[in-house]
């Protein structure tokens, strides 16, 4: 049997305290044969929440459902206390929502200003002067005011990504959904991006999907891990790292019992899994916890059968 | 990427929900602006204007326009703009699919059908601009000297309506298939339909196309003799645009019942208007044309200027000033006693024939009968064309000058039959010289006719024909190189001798001051003019 | 145990009391069991694990491996597209067919577009110059199309796999020549079709043929120097210039003019053969 590995390692105060912006209950999305989301239950409050998971885990599906562009097969969804399936509420939600899709397309012949302005119009910002003011503000916010007259085809990939982020920021949305926004950014750009998102997270709900565990540990007070369409972990970022406490060790040889292991620069293997007795354990990071969780979700086995540390039966 | 500029500012909810209309309008403005700046649209616009400029300035062929024909010709030129609009709008319609922004824009407030609606509305400024261009073109033509007739608003509006159809069809096509190539291919199909329609200018089914072309090689007819259901056709085009627009909205997800009803109604309207347009021309039209051809006097107005009377279809009456310039230029060298006291010029149309090869001869006997009844016996015929810009215009100008000069020289009206139209000897030389010097441009008109002719006999005129021999033409053109006043004075002095039937060409040329050797024996023996 | 065969007919005949006999299984494994018996045996095998285990003993592992191998290969074989199938049917070698099927200027949309353009031009010729001896518009336009096709087939803008192809081909000249020839042939066939509706059919109606070859050859000759877009543009411009210069005399349509064109075509082909090494050092050319 597949163990129920949904985990609530540590309660997250802000998520509980703030009023829930997003409430997802038993959300299920089926494509023809595959089940992309399988009974996801989740509630989001203010602050930055990270969404981690391997490719095909259903991250994008969940974000698209929250962005009201996808009708779930089952379960209920409420954003700002409204039901996105009802057309009028959906419009209302979309007005207060910023969505940056994974690999957003760009109209190459638009200038940065024109493009953001175009998105603003599609968001029903109809007053011309106010809209232009808003476009300038968001372009400033992502640091693109210098190049706003340049055509998008002349901008680098990182700059285009910022244009997309600027478009998502239009209208100062209360809920910001970012699908892998740091793909293609160089380390410096990612650092600036983190600053920006951290700032946006104050007083706003930000849901950030990513493969970069560093982004999550730097930014998110809360982490949700999805695998195969289910929530495997929902808790604090520190809690995810703590899952791997005592399960990371160094060894001179490749360890067959490790669920993951690689040779580090020191020549020793860093292993994650159930350590052999007397192993030299190391400090666990969020990534270790995440890798452990993923392998558990795949194999259906938690690496260490010790009852005391096995985080079983979280709230669902 | 520093900071958000106003992190502490109050949470700004998006501007109060303005309702869907305002969003669509704002987007339509943006899309409209992009359309007007699109290279395909601008290029087609420039091409169209360049065509007009070339026609008017370089080729100079837009003189003496007939406005109730020009309003129709403008349509085919405006189809260029319709093509540019089609391409530009189609690219805009498939832009989200092509650039991969569709999934993103789905999450924004404006729904796909609202985006489609904005795109449809964005065609309006392009159509409006086209209407302005059409108006400017026809206004410019109307300001030309010698403009005749008046344009029909429905014909003028057909061009902008075609732009509307092209734009809405492009939106619909972009919503049906996302292929980029579908645009040019659909455009080529439309072009083929239009060209095929133009190849059959006498078939009534051509009204199913965007524009209906007439046989443009035929000289103008009075507007009353045209059969053009222009108003119905405009309605047809507008309903077609409406059908495309509603179909596009439906396709984009606006499934409201009213849209379906509107689509059904507009499609039905298109069918009804198309069937009504495609009815063959009524029999009364053919009868009216025959009447106007055989007996034009009943529909014409006459004006007397000096000792001459000019009769024309009312729309063309202003042309008599041009005709007067030519006739007076001829009469100034005619001695007073040789003049007929009452010369008349009467306008005639040429027979409308469906086969382009069938050259039909003018019914000169019927015209003589009609002139006799109207009391204008011996009237000189003039056509509906005029000017020095096109071959048709030059032929008409040169032809009238020759016909009038022949009437003055021979004292007889034109006859029917090729043999009777032949002028020989001194009369021929004098006639051609009179015609050539009559007004600025007439010599040029004669020369252009000669350049386009082969053989020993050359006929002048579009309505009636005066035929002369090449040798006489050579003499006449040599005379035209001499000062007109000298030659004219001699013509006046030797008028009786020059117009005598048996004066030879060489004798006439000598009388008029040309140094011509004595005619050698056998000269012109095998010519049509050799003594019978 | 599930799936026991109880049908008396079956059990009575060949399979023993309940399960298939060793002999039956052996014959089945060798493929010599009669069809009607096989049809009875197979449903039973599906449900009977011991029989399957027994069967394994009768089957040579090499035989099975061979079977798997064949299946594997059959699954991996690419399915040729419509164009490629047509080419293969015409006895074009399969490697050439593959190169041709990836030519942008042989896609159906391009071919349809070319045909429609030519038809439209031929009809326009009927409309504008019904009495002209030579169909000027048509002959002017037709040679531009293969030049455009060569440009599309050879430039990076229209081929997503441009870089890979550029790096992979040992010699650039052959595929470029192959594609250009295919473009020329397809354009010529389409133009010949469209010529049929020209107002006057005669030698002059096919006056586009030599110029078509000439623009294509000229595009290729110029390509190593000028690049895959500029070269066809120059070739097209040269053709239009020649037309404008001879507009009044119509000398291009005369026998003498066509002979000159033929000589030029020959010269261009010779030059192309001489210059073919240049292709391998040219960066702008699509493989």
From TrEMBL, chain B:
Coiled coil: none annotated. Residues 1-22 are annotated as: Disordered. It comes from the Bacteria. The keyword Aminoacyl-tRNA synthetase does not apply. The keyword Nucleotide-binding does not apply. Keywords: Membrane, Transmembrane, Transmembrane helix. This is ABC transporter permease.
């Amino acid at each position: 049997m597949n163990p129920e590995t949904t985990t609530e390692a540590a309660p997250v105060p802000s998520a509980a305290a703030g009023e829930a912006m997003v409430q997802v209950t038993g959300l299920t999305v089926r494509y023809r044969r595959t089940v992309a989301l399988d009974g996801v239950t989740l509630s989001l409050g203010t602050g930055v929440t990270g969404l981690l998971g391997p490719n095909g885990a259903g991250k994008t599906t969940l974000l698209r459902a929250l962005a009201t562009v996808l009708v779930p097969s089952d379960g209920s969804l409420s954003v700002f206390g409204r039901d996105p399936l009802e057309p009028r509420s959906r419009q209302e939600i979309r007005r207060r929502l910023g969505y940056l899709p994974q690999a957003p397309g760009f109209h190459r012949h638009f200038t940065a200003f024109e493009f953001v302005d175009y998105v603003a119009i599609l968001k029903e910002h109809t007053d011309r002067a106010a809209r232009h003011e808003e476009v300038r503000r968001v372009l400033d916010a992502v640091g693109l005011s210098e190049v706003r007259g340049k055509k998008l085809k002349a901008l680098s990939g990182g700059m285009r990504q910022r244009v997309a982020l600027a478009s998502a920021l239009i209208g100062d949305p209360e809920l910001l959904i970012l699908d892998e926004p740091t793909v293609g950014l160089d380390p410096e750009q990612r650092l600036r991006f983190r600053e920006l998102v951290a700032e946006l997270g104050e007083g706003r709900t930000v849901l950030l999907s990513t493969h970069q565990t560093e982004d999550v540990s730097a930014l998110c007070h809360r982490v949700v891990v999805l695998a195969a369409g289910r929530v495997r972990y929902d808790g604090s970022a520190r809690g995810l790292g703590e899952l791997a406490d005592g399960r990371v060790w160094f060894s001179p040889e490749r360890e067959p019992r490790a669920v993951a292991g690689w040779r580090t620069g020191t020549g020793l293997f860093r292993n994650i899994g159930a350590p052999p007795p007397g192993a030299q354990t190391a400090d666990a990071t969020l990534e270790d916890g995440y890798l452990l969780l993923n392998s558990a979700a795949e194999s259906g086995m938690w690496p260490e059968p010790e009852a005391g540390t096995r985080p079983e039966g979280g709230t669902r | 990427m520093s900071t958000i500029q106003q992190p502490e500012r109050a949470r700004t909810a998006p501007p109060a929900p303005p309702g869907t209309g305002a969003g669509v309008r704002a987007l339509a403005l943006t899309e409209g602006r992009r359309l007007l700046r699109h290279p395909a649209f601008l290029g087609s616009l420039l091409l169209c204007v360049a065509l007009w400029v070339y026609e008017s300035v370089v080729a100079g062929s837009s003189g003496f326009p007939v406005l109730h024909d020009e309003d129709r010709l403008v349509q085919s030129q405006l189809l260029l703009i319709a093509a540019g609009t089609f391409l530009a709008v189609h690219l805009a319609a498939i832009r989200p699919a092509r650039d991969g922004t569709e999934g993103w824009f789905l999450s924004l407030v404006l729904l796909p059908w609202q985006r489609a609606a904005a795109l449809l509305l964005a065609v309006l400024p392009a159509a409006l601009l086209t209407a302005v261009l059409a108006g400017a073109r026809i206004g410019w033509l109307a300001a030309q000297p010698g403009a005749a007739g008046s344009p029909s608003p429905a014909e003028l509006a057909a061009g902008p309506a075609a732009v509307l159809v092209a734009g809405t069809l492009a939106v619909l096509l972009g919503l049906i298939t996302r292929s980029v190539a579908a645009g040019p291919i659909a455009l080529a199909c439309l072009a083929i339909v239009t060209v095929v329609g133009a190849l059959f200018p006498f078939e009534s089914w051509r009204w199913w196309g965007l524009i209906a072309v007439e046989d443009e090689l035929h000289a103008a007819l009075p507007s009353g003799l045209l059969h053009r259901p222009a108003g119905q056709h405009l309605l047809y085009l507008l309903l077609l645009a409406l059908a495309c627009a509603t179909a596009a909205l439906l396709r984009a997800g606006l499934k409201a019942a009213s849209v379906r009803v509107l689509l059904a109604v507009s499609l039905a309207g298109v069918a009804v208007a198309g069937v009504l347009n495609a009815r063959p021309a009524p029999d009364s039209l053919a009868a009216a044309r025959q009447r106007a051809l055989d007996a034009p006097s009943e529909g014409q107005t006459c004006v007397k200027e000096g000792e001459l009377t000019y009769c024309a279809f009312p729309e063309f009456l202003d042309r008599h000033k041009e005709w007067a310039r030519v006739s007076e230029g001829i009469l100034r060298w005619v001695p007073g006693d040789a003049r007929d006291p009452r010369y008349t010029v009467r306008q005639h149309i040429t027979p409308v024939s469906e086969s382009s090869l069938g050259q039909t001869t003018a019914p000169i006997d019927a015209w003589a009968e009609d002139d006799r009844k109207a009391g204008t016996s011996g009237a000189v015929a003039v056509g509906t064309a005029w000017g020095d810009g096109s071959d048709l215009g030059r032929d008409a100008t040169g032809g009238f000058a020759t016909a009038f000069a022949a009437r003055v020289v021979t004292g007889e009206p034109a006859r029917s039959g090729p043999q009777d139209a032949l002028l020989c000897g001194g009369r021929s030389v004098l006639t051609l010289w009179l015609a050539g010097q009559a007004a600025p441009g007439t010599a040029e008109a004669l020369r252009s006719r000669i350049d386009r002719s082969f053989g020993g006999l050359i006929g002048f005129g579009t309505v009636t024909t005066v035929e002369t021999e090449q040798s006489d033409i050579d003499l006449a053109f040599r005379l035209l190189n001499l000062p007109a006043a000298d030659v004219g004075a001699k013509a006046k002095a030797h008028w009786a001798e020059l117009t005598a039937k048996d004066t030879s060409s060489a004798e006439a040329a000598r009388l008029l001051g040309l140094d011509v050797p004595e005619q050698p024996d056998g000269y012109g023996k095998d010519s049509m003019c050799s003594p019978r | 145990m599930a799936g026991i065969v109880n049908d008396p007919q079956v059990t009575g005949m060949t399979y023993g009391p309940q399960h298939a006999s060793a002999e039956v299984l052996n014959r089945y494994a060798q493929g010599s069991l009669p069809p009607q018996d096989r049809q009875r045996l197979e449903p039973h095998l599906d449900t009977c694990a011991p029989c399957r285990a027994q069967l394994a003993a009768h089957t040579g592992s090499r035989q099975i491996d061979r079977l798997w191998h064949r299946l594997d290969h059959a699954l991996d074989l690419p399915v040729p597209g419509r164009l490629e199938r047509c080419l293969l049917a015409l006895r074009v070698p399969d490697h050439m067919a593959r190169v041709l099927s990836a030519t942008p200027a042989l896609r159906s949309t391009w071919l349809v577009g070319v045909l429609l353009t030519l038809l439209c031009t031929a009809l326009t010729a009927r409309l504008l110059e019904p009495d002209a001896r030579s169909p000027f518009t048509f002959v002017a336009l037709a040679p531009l199309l293969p030049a455009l096709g060569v440009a599309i087939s050879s430039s990076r803008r229209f081929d997503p796999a441009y870089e890979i192809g550029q790096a992979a081909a040992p010699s650039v000249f052959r595929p470029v020549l192959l594609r250009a020839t295919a473009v020329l042939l397809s354009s010529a066939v389409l133009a010949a079709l469209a010529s049929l509706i020209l107002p006057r059919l005669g030698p002059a109606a096919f006056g586009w043929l030599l110029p078509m070859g000439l623009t294509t050859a000229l595009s290729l000759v110029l390509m190593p120097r000028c690049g895959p877009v500029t070269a066809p543009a120059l070739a097209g411009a040269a053709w239009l210039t020649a037309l404008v210069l001879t507009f009044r005399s119509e000398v291009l349509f005369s026998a003498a003019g066509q002979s000159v064109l033929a000589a030029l075509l020959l010269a261009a082909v010779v030059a192309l053969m001489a210059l073919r090494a240049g292709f391998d050092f040219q960066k702008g050319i699509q493989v």
